[in-house]
Design brief:
The complex is a heterodimer of chains A (157) and B (290). Chain A is α+β, with helices and mostly antiparallel strands. Chain A has two domains: 2-77, Beta-grasp domain (Ubiquitin-like (UB roll)), CATH 3.10.20; 86-154, [2Fe-2S]-binding domain (DNA polymerase, domain 1). Chain A contains five helices and five strands. In chain A, strand 1 (2-7) and strand 2 form a beta hairpin. In chain A, helix 2 crosses helix 5. Chain B folds into three domains: 12-58, Uridine Diphospho-n-acetylenolpyruvylglucosamine Reductase, domain 2 (2-Layer Sandwich), CATH 3.30.43.10; 68-178, Uridine Diphospho-n-acetylenolpyruvylglucosamine Reductase, domain 3 (2-Layer Sandwich), CATH 3.30.465.10; 183-286, Enolase-like, domain 1, CATH 3.30.390.50. Helices cover 32% and strands 26% of the residues of chain B. In chain B, helix 9 (231-237) packs antiparallel against helix 10 and helix 10 (244-252) packs antiparallel against helix 12 (268-286). Classes of the chains: A alpha+beta (157), B alpha+beta (290). Chains A and B meet through strand 4 and helix 4 of A and helix 2 and helix 6 of B.
Chain lengths: 157, 290
């Protein structure tokens, strides 16, 4: 069956099977490999995407559930090499990653938070990141990155 | 040991556009089909082969299955309402604070953005965190099928782990909470602060008058085969003065009521002790002391 939705502003129309998760669909069919497969059961947060602006697990959605009008955002939709978003700049500046596997999920989670709450407290950041695991345990730097991203965004003209 | 996560097995997907159509499909396929609401429980369980289904009936395209509103003296939460929406709802925060508190301690924000209240109840985990608050609020659940609809008290809904009175052709479409004067609260003990399942959870509702418990209800999670009311505690406390001694005496009775098991999260003995501690603390909180 065919599925249609918007991915990072571009229209997607592609064949899928009922047992294909959105995660596998994005990685295998669309070649969007920033979305990582970690636990594949909703616990780790590496496969986080934004669905209509809200962070959700792509491993717990079926691709076939997407409808026309649904907007999926991955880090490819945030910035490109040479013109990174403030959040990406902040993660680089504050060393918000080590191995990088959790980073796309962390960055998208940060975007969802900052879009709703431009100046979050450390506690609010911790709450929002409850479901994103970093096996390198670089949480302090991730929190600093989000705080820095909030500053950079506030300076946006 | 945890079962291995594998790719989803082959399955047929149906997305009805009305509740009536969904009821007909469910009637036709019954146990061959599983309903897909948030998918946060169904999909991992299918990947682990803990649930088998030939057909997935996706309820997400049916208009009107989610939303929160007050009608008369009842708060209605439609079955497919996402936990995140319930947690943020000013109506729920005001009329059923224990439920909003419980959801704030469930899973993680991305899971709460998908998981639904009907899903949490129908999964019927003994540790389902929406259940204790709803039990103390005397909530009712509405189930619909092609035969019509029925409403049952949540206290009669759970039969055992993953077992409820919902028949194979029924869909849980609404949670109904009577709006009542009083205080409600929820508390959870997990193995860590965030993103954790309950070792023990407790909710309480109380209305006090002139320093006495006029109405008091207690419920616990993860300490019996089903989320349960602490009826003996309630009996011991109703009409009595709101003071520490009375609360301690009443809370002690919870030990006679719970029947916890030992599992990976805690031992039965620890759960029994903590049932007492959480019952005492939550009663102090809703009684306006401590």
């Amino acid at each position: 069956m065919q599925v249609q939705f918007k991915l990072n502003g571009r229209n997607i129309a592609e064949e899928t099977e009922a047992n294909e998760t959105l995660l596998d669909f994005l990685r295998e069919k669309i070649n969007v490999t920033s979305v990582k497969k970690g636990c594949d059961e909703g616990d780790c947060g590496a496969c986080t995407i934004l669905l209509n602006g809200k962070p959700v697990r792509s491993c717990l959605l079926l691709a076939v559930q997407m409808r026309e009008g649904d907007e999926v955002t991955t880090v490819e939709g945030l910035g490109q090499p040479g013109q990174l978003s403030e959040i990406q700049e902040a993660f680089m500046e504050k060393y918000g990653f080590q191995c990088g596997f959790c980073t796309p999920g962390m960055i998208l989670t940060a975007k969802a938070l900052l879009d709703e709450n431009p100046r979050p407290t450390v506690e609010e950041i911790k709450d929002q990141f409850e479901g994103n695991l970093c096996r390198c345990t670089g949480y302090e730097q991730i929190i600093e990155s989000v705080l820095r991203a909030a500053e950079l965004r506030a300076r946006r003209p | 040991m945890e079962a291995e996560v594998r790719p989803l097995p082959k399955v047929e997907y149906m997305a009805p556009s009305s509740l009536k159509e969904a009821c007909h499909l469910l009637k036709e396929y019954q146990s061959k089909a599983r309903l897909l609401a948030g998918g946060t429980d169904l999909i991992p369980k299918m990947k682990k082969r803990a649930i088998t289904a030939e057909i997935i009936i996706d309820l997400n395209r049916i208009p009107g299955l989610s939303g929160i509103e007050i009608r008369g003296d009842r708060l209605h939460i439609r079955g497919l309402t996402r936990l995140a929406e319930i947690k943020e709802s000013p109506l729920v925060k005001e009329k059923a604070p224990a439920l909003a508190q419980a959801i704030g301690l469930m899973a993680s924000p991305p899971i709460r953005n998908r998981a639904t209240i009907a899903g949490n109840l129908c999964t019927a985990s003994p540790a389902a965190d929406t259940a204790p608050p709803l039990l103390v609020l005397d909530a009712l659940v509405k189930m619909e099928s092609i035969r019509g609809e029925r409403i049952v008290p949540l206290a009669e809904f759970f039969l055992g782990p993953e077992k409820t009175v919902k028949r194979p052709d029924e869909i849980l479409t609404e949670v109904i909470i009577p709006v009542q004067e009083g205080n409600s609260a929820f508390m959870k003990l997990g193995r860590r602060k965030a993103f954790t399942l309950a070792v023990v959870s407790a909710a309480a509702f109380a209305r006090t008058r002139k320093g006495k418990f006029e109405e008091v209800r207690v419920a616990l999670g993860a300490v019996a085969p089903i989320p349960m009311r602490g009826r003996k505690v309630e009996e011991a406390l109703k009409g009595s003065e709101v003071n520490e001694q009375k609360i301690v005496q009443a809370a002690e009775r919870v030990r006679e009521e719970v029947s916890p098991i030992t599992d990976v999260r805690a031992s039965a003995e620890y759960r029994k002790d903590m049932s007492y501690v959480l019952t005492k603390r939550i009663l102090e909180q809703v009684g306006g002391r401590g």
